[in-house]
Structures are given as structure tokens and as C-alpha cells.
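Batch manifest line 327
LIGAND: adenosine-5'-diphosphate
JOB: complex structure
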Amino acid sequence: MKKKVTKIGVLSSGGDSPGMNACIRAVVRTAIYNGLEVCGIMRGYSGMVEDDIIPMDSRSVANIIQRGGTILKTSRCKEFFEPEGRKMAYENLKKHGINGLVILGGDGSFRGAQIFSNEYDIPCIGLPGTIDKDIAGTDFTIGFDTAVNTAVEAIDKIRDTAEAHNRLFIIEVMGRDAGYIALHSGIATGAENILIPERKTIIEDIISQLEEKERRRKLVNIIVVAEGDDFGGGNEVAKVIKERLPLLEVRVCILGHIQRGGAPSCMDRLIASRMGYHAVECLLEGRHNVFVGIVNNRMNYTPLNEAVKKKQRISEEWMKIVKILAS
Ligand code: ADP
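JOB STATUS: finished
ARTIFACT:
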């Protein structure tokens, strides 16, 4: 018989993403609507280990739906990797009477939640808060839409300059292990080439394509590179191209952290609100130790034990579309 959840803790962990605040708001207000008590756990798992835990009410999440970042702050917590750290975290939760957790974060945070929920009798619900969209079991992650729109806006601006000067621009976007931001922003801005960690980059192919485009007088080219591409980031790609095609005017732009911040898009606010609501429903209904996703516009619940084993794959269809549309 599963124990009834009466008091929940909510935290954001790992990399921040726009929409986390909208999600925290949804969790807090849904919990209160259902008569539960709620605490905010500060700085991810660090707040659990160090007992940085505060009570929350409906007013404490007022006026945050439109704000990027996370009011609960976030961190990467070394202690949580160790059994002693997790034991301290458990004792602190017990002290506060917290008997259910909602964890907003990426795959690393889910791994922490999975280990913790296997060791202790506190049910955990994961919510996919990451700009990388690399979690299998959901079509959307909270923050991806905003991040990719920020990248699109920036690349559109860069294209204006590229057109004015007949230049090749190499634009590096975020994505250490996942190429989704590069893929989506590249397609949406008509990039000539998109380099992602999930596909081996063959630099010779890129050079021969550029040579062929030069012959056709197609002189404005945008190449979008994910920071974790196997060939290296934007600077590495630019270096080789400059060596091989010295007459080409090449510029590099690394978009960096602007992709994480800013007001969440409407889409991110919506999925954050919907997922946050369902996370509390899961705790109430006894659907424990899962992460909440959306697949084909329906809620989808993946056990944390399975979630940490799989990664979202990039379909061949996308890669074919990139090739055909960039010709
Ligand atoms: P993200 O959730 O954005 O992928 P990280 O990979 O940095 O971010 O993970 C966030 C935190 O989750 C880590 O700092 C750590 O506290 C916890 N965590 C990640 N992996 C594990 C693990 N194998 N065991 C215990 N805790 C983990």
C-alpha cells in the first residue's frame, strides 16, 4: 500500500531553462488546490543536503510565469552523488515532513532522482526542464522552444550581415551532447549545413559543398554547429575551412548563454503549466517515480528507471530535409 502524500517539496536542478518558474508556479498552486502543503527546496539537491528548504504558498509564486531562470535557484550538487549526501538529504526531508518530491531538471537530475527513489521511501516525479530536448519519452522539454527561438532570432540577424558582405558565417549554438537546438534553429533559418553530435562530421564533404557553391556563385552560407559536435565547436570548423578555402570570408559567432535566459515563450509556459499540474496529480494518484512528458499531445509517464537509459534520437527524416532544402 503506497503512503498518502501530504507535503511535497519542489526543486529545480542542473542547467536552468526558461519556463522553470511557470512550472514551479503550477506545482505549488495545484498542490495547494488539493490541500497539500508545499516547500521550495533551494539550489537543487544542495538545498536537500544542506537543509535550505522554505515553505511556499500561492502568493510566493505570483508574477513569475513570465520570468526566465528559476526563483528556487539551481546547482550541480557533488554531495548527492554519494550515499552519505543522499542520506542527509533524506533526513532533512523527514524533518520537514516532506513525503513527495517534484524534480525539475535534465537527465542528470533524473538520474539523481532515480537513485534516491530506489534508496528511500519518498516518491519522486521528474519534469523535463532542459533546453536540450534530449530526453526520450516526451515531444517537448521545458525551455527548448524559447532557446531555439532565441537562436533563430540571432541567426536571422547574422544572415543580414552575411548577405551584405557575401560571407560564410559559422554559428555555434548550445548542445554539448544533443543537436536539437542546432537542427531546429538551422532548419528554421535556412542554414546550408548543420553539424550535430549525433552525426559524424565529414569536413571534406563540407569543403567540397562550399567549393561547388562558390562555382555557382552562392556566396552567402550559414553553417550552424552544436557546441558538442564531434569535429569541435565553431572555431575548430572555421579554422579548417579558412586553411582550405583561403579566399572565402569566414566569420564565427558563438551564441552562448543568451540561449538559456529570457522570458519563456507561450509554448514553454503552456507545457510547463500542464506538466506541473500533472506532476502533482501523479503524486496524488500513486503514480510514483516517473517523469511526466507529453507525446502526441497526451500525457506520457516514463518510469525514472527507464528514463535514465534512453536518449531522444534525431530522425533520418530531419537530416534528409536539411540536405534537400539547403541546395
Ligand atoms: P541536468 O539535470 O541539467 O542534466 P546535471 O547532469 O548536472 O544536470 O545533474 C544535476 C544534478 O543531479 C547533479 O549535480 C547531481 O546532484 C545530480 N545527479 C546527476 N547524476 C547523478 C547520479 N548518478 N547520482 C546522484 N546524483 C546525480
